[in-house]
Task: structure prediction
Amino acid sequence: MIQCGAVAIGTPRKVSLRRLALFVAGALAAAVAAWLWLTPAFGRGPTALTIIAFIVSVNTFYLYNLVFHLLPKGRWVAAMALGWYAALFAIFVGVAVGPPETRWVFGGVHRVLLFGLFTLLTGAFFHVPVLFGAMVAVIVGYVVFPFFAEATTALLLVLYLVGLVELRRARETNNFVVFGCFLLGFILVLVVLFPVGNLGVMRSPQDLKTAVFGHDAAAHETRRALAMSLRTATVTTALVLALGVPLGYFLVRSDFRGKRILDALVDLPIVLPPPVAGLALVQLVAPNQAFGRFLDERLGIVLANDWKGIVLAQAFVSSPFLVRSAMAAFQAVDPKLENVSRTLGAGPLATFFRVTLPLSARGIFMGCILTWGRAIGEFGSVSFIAESPETMPVRIYKQFVESGEKGPSTTLAILMVFLCVAVFAGLHLLASRTLWRNVSTIWGRARGAGSRT
Result:
């Protein structure tokens, strides 16, 4: 029993001694290999000694994790760690070719230092799979796709983090349909976001600041175009809101012959090419046309080359988005609720404003977001009806024609991307369910207090 006990107690100690001996031998071998390998390349100066010391320390740390933490988990885990070490070596150092002065440089940084950095991160992150996977995404983005590194890395991180959650959920529920749909749908997300993400990193923040807040004539014209786009898109949204909501309610609550035709015509601006829409408007309101002369001579209204014409073009192409959103919101309201309001003594108009409209307000608000985004990005029809004053899409196109893709058009396009993303993020936050519920509660309390007064 004592002998068995001695064996039982002594076995882990022998295993620990073996691992310790393996660690010491491996650390010494790595240090000698680093010295023999890097000294001919970097010399023996202070900088070279610092680099060698860093690499030796990193290898020692990595070997410590491999021997004392990963090897007890199994040989496959240790083999994966060794394979990753070899992959990092091949990526950053093993393929170093060229003249001696540039052989060890990778993107302005020493290949050996990058190898050491990612080896150190691997040793730290190998116990945390989420962080390790994120590091792999960064390496793939910057090494495999160096020309689109930032955009690729961001999309790979999104794919990895969201896919990790969905894969875990699929394993728990034994249902991989949602996970498969995510993988297929992400291809479409890549098609949409990759060009925009790649565009967003092509200029520095200083270029964007100069384009907007500079003191030259170009910056002044950019500010005017930006203000014009914001102004006209907001006026267009308010105009379409005032006219589109009644139209949507009418199409939902009415039934008449030809309703399907009118319902289909609502989507006509969507299917029409923008140049066709612009040409149709020009043929109607141009100064040399009958209706355009009538507006100018009798009412003093000029639409061509005026901000009011821009609003007309934007309303033409963006109105279907709000009308369709309003129709979907009204269809979600049960008509029985309106009937109950009527039986309680409320009139039709009071029922609409107190019951129907509040219940469909969130859907209508989402339609306003889509309408505003479509209006501020409209180019085709606006360029036909008003070359001046310029909106941002028109100015971007003119700058591209004058200077090409290397001119200021890219900077202006990035400004539009940042502006639209910021506005859309803020509006979607405002339309979130929790915030909308709080606003509705505050509004209801204020109305109740007003009625008691």
